[in-house]
Automatic annotation (TrEMBL):
SUPFAM superfamilies named among the record's database cross-references: CBS-domain pair (SSF54631)
Keyword Transmembrane helix belongs to the record: no
CBS domain: residues covered: 10-65, 83-138
UniProt cross-references to InterPro entries, sorted A to Z: CBS_dom, CBS_dom_sf, Diverse_CBS-Domain
Name of this chain's protein: Manganese-dependent inorganic pyrophosphatase
Database matches in Pfam families: CBS
Keyword presence, Heme: no
Length: 153
């Protein structure tokens, strides 16, 4: 199975912010749309990714700094301060097993799918798991149909 097949069975909406956007704006976007990541775009190009992990890391960092002195509230933190500037990416032709390996090795839950410099979509670990499960279920049904005397459940 290839990444393009995973994209075919999921919502294609992309949510984006700019690097100079307030972090609070990105967090509100993520909460209102029940998503775990947003892409960061600058000049029509992918500049990075912001996921709930990066949000938690910057908030924890700021809380630790607070012990030393005053820190700005979340409304004053910019996306550029928290985003992952070099997220792993996938291509449409990438094998899903290879994508899973990348995701596991880099502890990444959300991966932008690129076609050259153009972002095509975002694939989440959940999307991959769902696609693989559906593929296995289809294979299982086909095998059971092939074996004519398979007992009914």
């Amino acid at each position: 199975m290839e990444v393009k097949e995973v994209l075919q069975v999921k919502d294609t909406a992309l949510f984006a912010v700019k690097p100079d956007s307030p972090l609070s704006e990105a967090v509100i976007m993520m909460a209102e749309n029940d998503i775990g990541s947003v892409i960061v775009m600058e000049g029509g190009k992918l500049a990075g990714m912001l996921t709930f992990r990066e949000v938690m890391l910057i908030l924890a960092k700021r809380q630790s700094e607070r012990r030393v002195g005053p820190t700005p509230p979340i409304a004053e933190i910019l996306v550029v301060e928290a985003m992952d500037t070099h997220p792993p990416t996938a291509t449409l032709e990438m094998d899903v097993d290879e994508l899973r390996r990348v995701m596991v090795d880099t502890h990444t839950r959300y991966v932008p799918v690129m076609e050259g410099d153009t972002i095509i979509g975002i694939v989440s670990f959940h999307d991959v798991a769902k696609a693989v499960l559906e593929e296995r279920n289809m294979e299982n049904k086909l095998l059971k149909a092939y074996i004519k005397d398979w007992p009914s459940p």
